[in-house]
Amino acid sequence: MSRASLDKKPQDVARMFDEVAKRYDLTNDILSLGQDRRWRGKVVDMVAPTPGERILDLAAGTGTSSEPFAKAGATVVPCDFSQGMLDVGKAERPSLAFTAGDGMKLPFGDESFDAVTISFGLRNFVDTAAGLREMLRVTKPGGRLVVCEFSQPTWAPFRTVYSNYLMKALPAVATKVSSDPESYVYLAESIQDWPDQRALARIIADAGWGRVDWTNLSGGIVALHHSVKP
Question: Torsion angle of alpha carbons 151, 122, 70, 179, nearest 10°?
């Protein structure tokens, strides 16, 4: 399995998610102390789906993040490159149109969606900028982008506590609840190596999106970056 400090190999990352798929949602609930569902709820609020819109939910995993869009009356397409995640999702949520797809080359036509969202998946892309340009391609002019991703706590003393949790406590807890605890060592490393709020905003803008703003959640542990296609 590739490490966060090395080049990400898509096949290794996909295999990692295949292995944790069955207990992925439960593990996330435990490791985030239940906060992950609140964070995803904020994504839905920011996307503000309306009936009849087409929404692409990238890195959708088992579809936990996609369900609220469907309940709002939008047509949501949960897309992921882990077949294991898709299989679990389809078994649990058969009404959703799960689609296998690589973020580097999405299987959708130009300007297909009113909004694109990705939660906790962008940092797994082998090329972040290229993935953002591909999202731009499939979004209609005036369409929205919402990226929910781990970020940097805004209060310096808390950053130290958080870093210690990521590298020590998180893998230890994952050993008890996950089918593949080693995967969570990779995830912890990938969070630490990820750009902070301002740096990610610059990457999104450079990929061709319009003005990029962000909203910090849980003191900056997570940030929602949002923009509109010019």
Answer: -90
CB count within 10 Å of CB 15 equals: 16
Q: Rounded CA gap, 17 and 183, in Å?
A: 8
Range of 114-118, 123-127, 177-181 with top mean pLDDT: 114-118
3-state DSSP helix/strand/coil percent for the chain, to nearest 5? Answer: 50, 20, 30
Global confidence as pTM: 0.83
Our measurement of the distance from residue 179's CA atom to the centroid of its chain's CA atoms, rounded to an integer in Å, reads 21
Q: Is 57 helix (H, G, I), strand (E, B) or coil?
A: strand
Q: And the tokens for 7? A: 């080049």
| The dihedral formed by the CA atoms of 191, 193, 198 and 202, expressed in degrees to the nearest 10 | -110
Token pair for residue 30? 């435990």
Tokens 């999405």 correspond to what residue? Answer: 106
The tokens for 177 are 């609840």
Phi, psi dihedrals of residue 32, rounded to the nearest 5°: -95, 5
Q: For the segment 20-52, what is each residue's pLDDT rounded down to a tens digit?
A: 545 555 445 545 555 777 888 999 999 999 999
3-state secondary structure of 160: helix
- The 10 Å Cβ neighbour count of residue 122 is 23
Token pair 């003393």 is at which residue?
Answer: 157
State how far the Cα of 95 lies from the Cα of 99, in Å rounded to an integer. Answer: 12
Q: DSSP readout, 74-138?
A: -EEEEEES-HHHHHHHHHH-TTS--EE-BTTB-SS-TT-EEEEEEES-GGG-SSHHHHHHHHHHH
